[in-house]
Automatic annotation (TrEMBL), chain A:
Entry keyword annotation includes Cytoplasm: yes
Sequence segments annotated as region (Disordered): 108-154
InterPro entries in UniProt: eIF2B_beta_subunit, IF-2B-related, IF_2B-like_C, NagB/RpiA_transferase-like
Record protein name field: Translation initiation factor eIF2B subunit beta
Short name of any one Pfam family annotated for the protein: IF-2B
Record keywords: Cytoplasm, Initiation factor, Protein biosynthesis
GO molecular function, one term: translation initiation factor activity
Organism for this UniProt entry: Aspergillus homomorphus (strain CBS 101889)
Subcellular location(s) per record: Cytoplasm, Cytosol
Coiled-coil zones: none
Residue spans of biased composition, Polar residues class: 117-126
Subunit structure: Component of the translation initiation factor 2B (eIF2B) complex which is a heterodecamer of two sets of five different subunits: alpha, beta, gamma, delta and epsilon. Subunits alpha, beta and delta comprise a regulatory subcomplex and subunits epsilon and gamma comprise a catalytic subcomplex. Within the complex, the hexameric regulatory complex resides at the center, with the two heterodimeric catalytic subcomplexes bound on opposite sides.
Record field: compositional bias (Basic and acidic residues): 138-148
GO CC term (a single one): eukaryotic translation initiation factor 2B complex
UniProtKB/TrEMBL annotation, chain B:
Any one cellular-component term (Gene Ontology): cytosol
Name under which the protein is recorded: Translation initiation factor eIF2B subunit alpha
TM helices/strands, residue ranges: none
Residue ranges of the region described as Disordered: 291-322
Quaternary context: Component of the translation initiation factor 2B (eIF2B) complex which is a heterodecamer of two sets of five different subunits: alpha, beta, gamma, delta and epsilon. Subunits alpha, beta and delta comprise a regulatory subcomplex and subunits epsilon and gamma comprise a catalytic subcomplex. Within the complex, the hexameric regulatory complex resides at the center, with the two heterodimeric catalytic subcomplexes bound on opposite sides.
Family classification: Belongs to the eIF-2B alpha/beta/delta subunits family.
Biased composition, class Low complexity, residue ranges: 299-309
Length: 441, 355
């Protein structure tokens, strides 16, 4: 298909192509410069690139020691995150990979433990639960990662309870005066890193493979919930050319008839939005899944109304539901999304229209937004006023923010690939996916 | 001083849990109510030679009920006693070294020998919170706070860092001072929190002190509100000193973030539906006619005469001890030792220890 620009323009496609052939350090530098120059910019593209890069990093490091792997990933992760701190998915993927390594190392340790303590085979996690206060805090997150599939009873009794960390039985070394209770996470593993009984590296590589698979499927998984939320003859308002939203709407359009009002999101995304609405396939080589980029909504008989952003408030009274895509979701339930999202969310609040945000779990960041302003990225001012307009450019200060911070109270529901969640529940998903010790990489 | 109390107290005299609790609170100004309650229970176990599980649990239950009854505001305290009881029960049910198969004496010995450790951990959790919460105090921001919360103090002091040091955050504090205690001993005519104001000023943090009536006026100049709590209830709301609720309401009205700093051992299993649903009696709204006032004045005179004869230091539920309830929708986030939580996360933590 449109691979005309493949090797020529640097981007996700060219990065993935060269990843196999280039030495690993070149690839790291390559991705850092791509991120810095914003040649990779969509959330998913960044996430995919990061996941592939980390997979190469781990397969290139010839060690099976969890500590060394963690150190290596942390080092690479820090550099990537420093390259583009506002692209929070990079950090999310790094944290998940770190979590994977820690999980595997811990499983390994548990395996050893069970061999020596035959008496506790029914609840393998139990002995660890209360003997180490720091463990009790962190293991909670690890334990719930697969909690959905686990038998609830052991999960309940084995779940280490952080409130008990106050009273719990001290580890021998912790009861010594002067020893800090919170041992550093890497220090904790020093004793267990020796003689691993299985191939941690292979397990981690498998895990990263799963993350990459997840990134590929996430939109379809989210779309599977579409029929629960979009009903016949509803009027839906959306914004930007988000693939996730489009797939969501398309899924519902296969069964139901509804109307979509599409705000054009000038000046940063209007061309792509127009293309999405009209079905002129955008030559966007960053969207990997071009093969799955399907017919536009109008081809399925859906009425799509394209409006300028300024008309959002006027039309809101007629809208039944607002469905928004996002750039990243933060731990407090707020989100960072394309500029203009907050206006829409605010208008929806005024009209009591439900606001639904569709987002993959990979966009969910454990970062707490202490400083909202630092999350907002400013883009090319020439999109607002072109530089040919010399007189104006000289005299006025033109700003083009790319993102908006939308506080949690403006959002009614998040739909992720795991289902629908209230904004106040997101902390739970955060703690399921990231480990406490990795929150600050 | 736990050891000091246990040795000095007369062995022949029956163990008085209420006195122990009050002694503990008085002896260490850094001690929170739940921790003092746990300590009192630990000391109780030291003094009672019960060796079976049910005997111990029964004893604990009775003493807890007695303690709760004798303290005017047992909300904070009950967080500690509940946590202690649940810990004991859960540990006993759990297979393993300390479980039913194991020796009951082992867990008893663990609890008895580690009283100091619990207190130390409780204090350490403040440092942990301060580490989590540092990010909330930004350079150039103004923080509004109230009361004499030790956790808030440690958070702000850590943010202030060394004077002019590399890690110092340059921030300002607006400190809401409640009027001085109307204590019997007039020595502490200074409002609660002045100590923290001095400590902050010493570190080079500009502090403005305002009366409670000036909160609405001053809030426009503040970027963030940080308060402490006596107890965090099940729905994520907080029980805190009188005046916190109105600060919360005002912060919401002015859309300023309202953060609560509290250790996770302050989570208490309580679900208040409103201000007047707290399980304590507070005579805040007290309607009186002229007649009632005259009656009361007479009674007070009599009481004062009696009091001078008996021990003078007995604490009465003074007006400064009253609390109010801040509902969860006013709270932006809870900064606890297990991380920054949304109010709805509190119930999950509680459910984990109860069910």
């Amino acid at each position: 298909m449109p691979s005309t620009s493949g090797p020529l323009t640097p981007g996700l496609a060219s990065f993935l192509k060269t990843l196999k052939t280039n030495p690993i350090d070149t690839s790291i530098d390559n991705l850092i410069s791509l991120l810095k120059r914003r040649q990779i910019r969509h959330s998913r593209s960044c996430a995919t690139a990061t996941a592939y890069l980390l997979r190469s990093v781990i397969s290139a490091s010839r060690t099976n020691d969890a500590n060394k792997l963690i150190e290596r990933v942390q080092y690479v992760g820090r550099r990537l995150m420093a390259a583009q701190p506002r692209e929070m998915v990079v950090g999310n993927i790094v944290r998940r990979v770190l979590g994977l390594i820690r999980d595997e190392a811990e499983d390994d340790r548990e395996g050893d433990f069970n061999l020596s303590e035959a008496g506790s085979e029914s609840q393998p996690q139990t002995p660890r639960g209360l003997d180490d206060p720091t463990d009790a805090l962190s293991a909670r997150h690890e334990g719930s990662d697969r909690g959905a599939s686990r038998n609830p009873l052991p999960a309940l009794t084995a779940a280490p309870i952080s409130m008990f960390s106050l009273l719990s039985h001290p580890e021998p070394e912790n009861s010594l005066p002067g020893t800090p209770v919170s041992a550093s996470p890497s220090g904790r593993w020093l004793g267990f890193g020796h003689g691993p009984s299985k191939d941690i590296r292979a397990e981690v590589l498998d895990g990263i493979g799963e993350i990459i698979d997840e990134l590929g499927q996430v939109d379809d998984q989210i779309a599977a919930y579409a029929l629960d939320h979009i009903h016949s003859n509803e009027i839906i308002l959306t914004h930007t050319s988000s693939t996730t939203v489009q797939k969501f709407l398309l899924k519902a359009a296969a069964k139901r008839k509804f109307t979509v009002i599409h705000a054009e999101s000038y000046p940063n995304n209007h061309e792509a939005t127009h293309a999405t609405v009209s079905g002129a396939n955008p030559h966007d080589d960053e969207l990997l899944s071009t093969e799955s980029f399907q017919k536009p909504l109008i081809a399925l008989g859906i009425t799509v109304i394209l409006i300028p952003d300024s008309a959002v408030f006027a039309l809101m009274s007629r809208v039944n539901k607002v469905i928004l895509g996002t750039h990243s979701v933060l731990a407090n339930g707020g989100l960072v999304a394309a500029a203009g999202t907050r206006v829409i969310a605010r208008a929806a609040k005024v009209h009591q229209t439900p606001v639904v945000v569709v987002s993959g779990v990979y966009k969910l960041s454990p970062v707490y937004p202490f400083d909202f302003d630092s999350l907002i990225e400013y883009g090319d001012a020439s999109k607002v006023i072109s530089y040919e307009d010399g007189d104006l450019v000289d005299q006025i200060d033109v700003q083009n923010p790319l993102y908006d911070y939308v506080p949690a109270e403006l959002i009614d529901l998040y739909i992720t690939n795991l289902g629908g969640h209230a904004p106040s529940y997101l902390y739970r998903i955060v703690s399921d996916h990231y480990r406490k010790e990795d929150i600050s990489v | 001083m736990a050891a000091a109390i246990s040795t000095s107290s007369d062995v022949a005299k029956p163990f008085d849990i209420v006195a122990t609790y009050n002694d503990l609170l008085r002896s260490d100004p850094d001690l929170t109510m739940p921790i003092a309650a746990i300590e009192a229970l630990v000391l109780l176990l030291t003094h009672s030679p019960s060796s079976t599980i049910s005997e111990t649990l029964d004893l604990l239950e009775k003493s807890t009920a007695h303690l709760k009854q004798s303290i005017p505001n047992p909300i904070g305290l009950s967080a500690g006693t509940d946590l202690f009881q649940r810990y004991l029960i859960t540990t006993l049910q759990r297979p393993g070294q300390l479980g039913p198969a194991g020796d009951f004496n082992a867990i008893r010995a663990h609890l008895l020998s580690n009283g100091r450790l619990f207190i130390r951990r409780a204090k350490e959790s403040r440092d942990k919170i301060a580490a989590f919460g540092r990010g909330f105090v930004r350079d150039g921001s103004t923080v509004l706070t109230n009361g004499g919360s030790r956790v808030v103090a440690s958070l702000l002091q850590q943010a202030a860092g060394e004077k002019g040091g590399p890690s110092a955050v340059r921030f300002r504090v607006i400190y809401v001072l409640s009027p001085a205690k109307g204590d019997v001993e007039g020595s502490s005519a200074e409002p609660e929190g002045m100590e923290m104001v001095r400590a902050l000023r010493e570190k080079g943090v500009p502090v403005a002190t305002i009366p409670e009536s000036a909160v609405a006026y001053s809030l426009g100049k503040a970027d963030v509100v940080i308060v402490g709590a006596e107890g965090v209830v099940e729905n994520g709301g907080i029980v805190s000193r009188m005046g916190t609720y109105q600060i919360g309401l005002l912060a919401k009205a002015m859309s300023k973030p309202f953060y609560v700093v509290a250790e996770s051992h302050k989570f208490v299993r309580l679900y208040p539906l409103g201000q007047y649903d707290l399980p304590i009696e507070q005579r805040v709204i007290d309607f009186k006619t002229e007649e009632d006032v005259a009656d009361e004045a007479k009674q007070q005179q009599q009481q004062q005469q009696q009091q001078t004869q008996s021990t003078p230091g007995v604490k009465s539920p003074d007006s400064h001890d009253v609390v109010d309830y801040t509902p969860p929708h006013l709270i932006s986030a809870l900064i606890t030792d297990s991380g920054v939580l949304t109010p709805s996360a509190v119930s999950e933590e509680l459910i984990k220890i109860w069910f």
